[in-house]
Amino acid sequence: MATILVIDDERPIRSALREILEFEKFKVDDAEDGLAGLSMIEKNKYDVILCDIKMPKMDGTEVLGKIISMGIDVPVVMISGHGTVETAVDAIKGGAFDFIQKPLDLNRILVTIRNAMDRADLVQETKVLKRKVHKALTNEIIGESAPIQQIKEMIDKVAPSDARVMITGANGSGKELVARQLHEKSDRSKSPFIEVNCAAIPSELIESELFGHEKGAFTSAHKMRQGKFEQANGGTIFLDEIGDMSLSAQAKVLRALQEHKISRVGSDKDIKVDVRVLAATNKDLRKEIDENNFREDLYHRLNVIPIHVPALNDRKDDIPLLVDHFLKMICEDQGIPLMPINADAISELKKLDWTGNIRELRNVIERLVILCDKEISGADVKMYSNPASN
Q1: Range 76-105 burial, b when 16+ CB lie within 10 A, else e
Q2: Distance between CA 74 and CA 230 in Å, rounded?
């Protein structure tokens, strides 16, 4: 149910609007002047605001200006009994969605509200799409600590080559981000970047996923399917959690690296592929080799350039920069003004044991943004950083 705020100093106007809008199944709040209306806007989320221009304490033009300056994205329809063309133009220029003159035509009010809501939906959809494109195109590594500076320098040196890279580090430390930076700074950046999570694919399907299959190769193979290596041709394939790959699939990956050829499941035809291979794991592959879980020859093929991504506990000086980055991203996603965080909160975040690394930090920041009111404090961090304790 959409919620509408009516700000008008005339009680009969507020009552009439409430009656008709509630009849149309809207939820309605009302305020008798600009100051009261602004206070309600700060505390609640509205889909449309109807605001009179001439009011005591704070007029509608000031309310509109405050809404815009606070970054609150809501359509505002200005109403006035002293309207002229100039007044209407000024209201629209000031950021209002529309201007309606008194006495109010209730049919026009309803049409305007629905148009405002339709436009708001389109704007929101556009923002979501823009954010997705922006996230897909920007994979900046956040941090200025010595370990992160070393990784950035290594990426700059290695990216232009076709050298294979083995990225190691704990879960949630940012291994995928390193892989994406290597691709984006390479000569292959305009070609596909294909990611394969080897741990998420059942062992009996990994070969089909990587190399594709021919129609009829197995029971559910109803048509020919290209594998990830073919999809990545000319670009980069990122084999995430490669330590979980089956030995049979490892043998085929080794052949692809040696001969630059693959064959689909159910076919003996060779297909040439030009792919740069990046791999990542949170496992100790040396130990896996000793336990006959990982091929040593494949390890040496992949481990041309080793890059280790440090745990967040080893780079806590980067926490303020990471927090700032996540706050901006999350508040933008939520469509709310940037939430401030004080020094005490940053200090408390630095004290925590980040076993989940960057991923855990992002989750905590999102939790704080949702649960805190106006500013994130040290007390908030203590209260909400560990959900199991609440």
Answers
A1: bbbbbeebeeebbeebeeeebbbbbbeebe
A2: 46
Q: Report the 10 Å Cβ neighbour count for 30.
A: 20
What is the model's pLDDT at position 146?
A: 94
Which residues have a Cβ under 8 Å from the Cβ of 128 and sit 6 or more positions away?
A: none
Residues 274 and 161 in one domain: yes
Tokens of 49: 């605001």
Residues 95-115 pLDDT 10s = 899 998 888 888 899 999 999
Residue 141 lies in a domain: no
Domain identity same for 113 and 215: no
What residues of the chain score a pLDDT lower than 50?
136-137, 389-390
Q: Do 236 and 354 reside in the same domain of the chain? A: no
Residue 78's φ and ψ, nearest 5 degrees, are -85, 140
Q: How many CB atoms lie within 10 A of CB 315?
A: 21
In angstroms, rounded to a whole number, what is the distance separating the alpha carbons of residues 279 and 85?
65
C-alpha–C-alpha distance, residues 42 and 70, integer Å: 9
Q: What is the DSSP string of 156-183?
A: HHHTTS---EEEE--TTSSHHHHHHHHH
The whole model's pTM is what? 0.66
| Domain assignment of residue 162, yes or no | yes
What DSSP element (H or E) covers 2? none
How far is CA 344 from each of CA 129, 150, 213, rounded to the nearest angstrom? 35, 29, 56
Closest CA to 329 of 62, 142, 90: 142
